[in-house]
Structures are given as structure tokens and as C-alpha cells.
Amino acid sequence: MDLYRKVAELIKSFKYLVAFTGAGISVESGIPPFRGSQGLWSKYDPEEFAHIESFLKNPAKVWKMIRDMFTTVLEAKPNTAHKVLAEMEKRGYLKAVITQNIDGLHQEAGSKNVIEFHGNCKWLLCLGCGKKEEVRKELIEKLPYPKCPKCEIPLKPDVVFFGESIPFSVRKKAETEVSSCDFMLVIGTSGVVYPAAELPYIAKIRGAKIVEINLEETPYTFSITDYFLKGKASKILSEIFTKLS
Ligand code: APR
Questions:
Q1: 121 among the known binding-site residues?
Q2: Where is the Deacetylase sirtuin-type domain (predicted)?
């Protein structure tokens, strides 16, 4: 039996499948990953541009990177990989998506139960009064940065910067899904940023099967992965999906 059929059989036989996704699932939507030669962090040092301390010290500088990132993210559309996961949820095969991505493409593809571990860049937040504003072109084009109309301080994308903690409610929801899952698809993540990267290990400790989809090996591959499917997420997921029906 080929590996795709094997994984499809496993998906049908397990009760609680959860997908854990990273930037790799959105690369085929035109959004660069963070690491690797084409990664965002090869262009911007995350310490200088994606740390909460840098944002507070020099918001204008950090907003240069944010504006650059927005150009690709706001035009991106869900790709086949996002759509297959949404369809799998619709047919009852998939219970939840826990994503590290901030692009909102899982929901745009139709996924309902999505936990955004690092937030969503489609909202801007005032750290002063907590007011949230939906991102729109004229807002992000304000120089040097968009401001809260009430507090007159820089607005911040509603995403988790380095140096910030994951909101407790988000961690709680993610850990509840992980503790219920008996099968986890780990898709397009380098597995190096904590506490998000811990989730597949927690699933494994609780006895879940781990299937990993990635272009290259990661720290999971030779430690907790049961089946490693090397290749592009959209191609692999559509192959598996054809064997599900
Ligand atoms: N299909 C499958 N995997 C892919 C594809 C693809 N088409 N393209 C790239 N990948 C893989 C890469 O091999 C890599 O392992 O996706 C992974 C992307 O890794 P990162 O860029 O490190 O992204 P991610 O793991 O999501 O980063 C986690 O780090 O910077 C923070 O907050 C940021 O959420 C992000 C976190």
C-alpha cells in the first residue's frame, strides 16, 4: 500500500485528528516562510524587527517590516492545502486546526475550528486602550505608522511578537485539542519556536500518531514522527484526500 493510502486509512481509523500548521502551508499562496534562504528573517533580523521591545522602542522601523509583510499577506488566497483541510473538517475527518500562521487563510478556505496560536494580522490593536481595528489599506499606509484615534499611540498588529506570551485562552484551547487528539498532521513547520513547537510533543506523549508533511526533515522527524511525507503540502494533502473518499 502506498504511503498516501496508508495515511488515508489511518485518518479513517482514528477518532480525533488535529492539524498543526506553520508557514510552509502558506508558501504556495505566495507568502514566504520565516526561515530558510527565502525566509522573512533572512531579510529582517527578528530580534530587531519582530520583538515587542523593538516595537515599543522604534515602532516606525518595525512598521516598515509590517508594511512589507502586509503586501503579500493581504493579497494571498488559500491554496489547495488549506482547502483540503477545510473539506476534511466538513466531512468530519478533521476536528481542529492549530496554526502558527497569522494570515487567516485557514478560515478563508472554510475551516471553522481554527486556533491562531500567534494571532491574526488582519486586526490592529491599541496597547493603550485595547481597541481593535480591522486592517485596511489606507490604515496601514499611514506614515510612520497608524495610530489609535483615541490614545494617539502606534497601533500594533494583533499578533504575538517575540518576547510576548501566548494569550492564556489560546493556549488553553490548543492544549485541550492536543490532549483530545489521537492523530496529528504536522504540516509546514520547522518546529523551532516555543511554546507552539511543544504541541506535537505533547500529542505524542499522550499517545497520538504523528504524520509530518514538509519539504525537509525537522526536529520532529527523527524523534516523534511516525510517517514523514516529504514534499509540498498541497500536493501531498490532495493525494491523501483522493484516497479518503
Ligand atoms: N510544503 C510543506 N512544507 C513547506 C513548504 C511547502 N510548500 N514550503 C516550506 N515548507 C516548510 C519548510 O521546510 C520549513 O520547515 O515549512 C517550514 C517553514 O518553517 P518556518 O519558516 O520556520 O515557519 P514556522 O515553523 O511556521 O515558524 C514558526 O516562527 O518566526 C516565528 O511566529 C513565527 O509562526 C512563526 C514561527
A1: no
A2: 1-245
CATH numbers and ranges of domains, the chain? 1-30+78-118+165-245 (3.40.50.1220), 32-75+121-159 (3.30.1600.10)
- Taking the CA of residue 24 as reference, the ligand 1 atom at the shortest distance is 16
Residue 86: alpha-carbon gap to chain centroid: 14
Cα 191 to averaged position of ligand 1 atoms, centre (Å): 8
State pLDDT tens for residues 16-58. Answer: 999 999 999 999 999 999 999 989 999 999 999 999 999 999 9
Annotation says 51 is catalytic: no
- Nearest residue to 175 (alpha-carbon basis) of 206, 211, 213: 206
Q: Which 3 state secondary structure label does DSSP give 147?
A: strand
pTM of the model: 0.97
